[in-house]
Amino acid sequence: MASRTKPRSRWQRPLLLAFLCVFTAVLIWTWWAEEHPREERQLRVLVHDRLHDWFPQAMSPDDDGWHGLEPRIGEGSAGRPRIVLVHGLDEPGSIWHDLFPVLDAAGFEVWEFRYPNDQGIDRSAQYLAEHWPDLPADRPAILIGHSMGGLVIREFISRWRHPVGTTSRVAGAPIRGAILVGTPNHGSEWARLRIWLELRDQWIEEGDRRFSLFAALRDGTGEAKIDLRPGSEYLTALNAKAWPEAVPIRLIGGILLESPPWMSDSVTAIAKELPAADLKDMFASWWSDIGEGLGDGVVSLTSLDLPEAPPPILVPASHRGLLMRFQPNEPQPPAIAPILGILEEWSDRREASVQPATEVIRQEDPLETDRLDDEEEQ
Question: What pTM, to 2 d.p., does this model score?
Fold first, then answer.
């Protein structure tokens, strides 16, 4: 008796062909984008701008109840600078949860800046400049940035609030200092995996964030991941900008690999039995090279460095573990103590680092003019 074969679904072949077409298109796009980062960025900016033109209300970050510069903690103690927190790439909003109560207990008034973080870093800094007048100007501010947020801070200070050799381009509170936590000042290869961070950003949401089909597009079309690549045109230009001497900057980074005591003891014991007296030094150098390259798992120690800043304060932590607990019973995240120490040091300074600006460089709207200048350059 002949066995019957199960008939194939009529949709099987078209679905397979569609999958192969999509897979081929992704491969071609990936190859082209890797070879043409400038053109890819220009295309992404063009798409982002067109979406703004076609759907102005849906694409506006100011109307979604999430983005902007908003107060989070009280008025703080009199005379203390205000704290402004700036998150990094594709952050769902939880990175500051362990820092908030510590700053509150220390008597600091805290504001948080949320922005469309997938757009170009220069535009995110411009968005901060647009909202900077929302911050009261009666005392100076200290900015704290995690990851890419530190680059937004550097761009904002060096280009907008306290540019070297020219008048401030935006009025408001002067800046007493900047603390960059896990900031890839020279880029990170992890930026190429932005799509997975985007899924985290859109699916792990805070309760006050309104759902919208435009949410991901409102955040940008991925320009930031191009800016974050090591050696990108954006980072090259940012690192060439002069930094205002009156604004101190401090760096905090994480390191995942530390030589455990048992390993160091074993190497010391072996070195005593062998004629190679420099074995311990060789091991320490080898292990140090591994740790520096790995850093916090996302940002290497080499990428942290800045010539205008003291050497980074290094703590044993992963990239997000610098500032947040993964389990409620874990100890305080290791970057919080040095942050508080720096804030106390700067709070003792009675004078502001830079006097508030009394004029803007242009009579017309400098933010809009700068946007048009950037479009002409592209």
Answer: 0.77
